[in-house]
Amino acid sequence: MRVLFATTAGAGHFGPLVPFAEASRRAGSDVLVAAPASFHQSVERLGFAFWPLGEPTAEAWGAVMAPLRGMSAEDGNRIVIGEVFGRLDGGAALPRMLQAIDEWRPDVVVREANEYSSIVAAEKRGVRHVHVAIGVAANDALTFEAVEPAIEELRRSVGLGHDAGLSALRGAPYFTLTPGSFEDPRDPGPAHASRFRDPAMAVPPPADPIPDDLPLVYVTLGSVAPTMGFFPVVYRAVLDALAELPIRVLMTVGEAADPVTLGPLPVNATVERWVPQAEILPRVALVVGHGGYGTVLGALAAGRPMVILPLFADQPVNAARVAALGAGLALPGGAVPDPERAIASIHLLPDAVTRLLSDPTFTQAAGRVAAEIGELPPVDAAVGMLAAP
User: Fold this and answer.
1) How far apart are CA 356 and CA 155, in angstroms?
2) pLDDT tens across 325-344, in order?
3) pTM score of the predicted model
4) How far is CA 205 from the centre of its chain?
5) Neighbours of 318 (CB within 10 A)
6) CB-CB contact of 284 with 277 (8 Å)
7) Which residues touch 75 (CB under 8 Å, ≥6 apart)?
8) Is 38 exposed, middle or buried (CB count within 10 Å of its CB: 0-12, 13-18, 19+)?
9) pLDDT by residue (tens digit) across 94-117?
10) Is 52 in a helix, a strand, or coil?
């Protein structure tokens, strides 16, 4: 098969596609990843062939994003989904997406939930498409409503008629790495959802932790936060909040940030740009994070509890689900980027970390989700489904 994977320029968006792309490659399929041109390093680093898409100018992007601070979470999300992912990103990407299908002739297009040019291009060219979730299914309700006008605009631009209720989007095969228990019980997702596990992520916890008298706490606020005004002040505040606890801290800041900017570190802290998360997670006592989908799934797959400080996007939703499952604690945060709001919650961090370290029920709850993930079929089982008519 020839499988075209389509993503926007974000690690949290591309990440859920990667296990399916790697499984397709293992099965002998030809894989091409279409993404905004600026995202080429993230794709090529994993050894995938890359097809660059157009992307909006920084000025256009900034004009949409600038008013977000001070908006409600719901209004902010509507703008990001509809205007940024839908109208700006989708419109800029569509010409090259059509060209990719015309020249490369894929058998199927596999798209992450917020890449919209691919669904329009696939329908225009009569190519089957598959939806890969990048979070809990409950997010789709807001997503569909917010993006419908932009998708209709994209459809008109290529001569497609009206799609009442986004039937092409809603009816597509739906792949997800989300275990059923993590879904919102009020909206658990489409009945036709197919759930899988990433074998590289679902690693059983080792029998023995890293030898040391002090527990290791892994701190990550994701790769995007440094580009949105959270670095270095929020990162430094987290380090200072944890400095007096009897723990060891391993913080990662991402490729966009320089650890040197944080200044002299507390004696209990180590800061790196990046660590192999799948390897380190099973060996830590707990995770302090932002609630990004990939980090949350990785921690749960490893059976590790979390303290979550949501910074933007769907992170408050993920934090609430972790808390509801008893696998961690959620601190006050927001869906719209606001470093000041994040700093206002950091004083709660030491008590939350202490509570998770002293109460084994959080680790037990995370372990139950890890066991559930371990029972899901591996992503390799999805490859045959991609070829289904």
Assistant:
1) 49
2) 999 999 998 877 789 999 99
3) 0.91
4) 23
5) 27
6) no
7) none
8) exposed
9) 999 999 999 999 999 999 999 999
10) strand
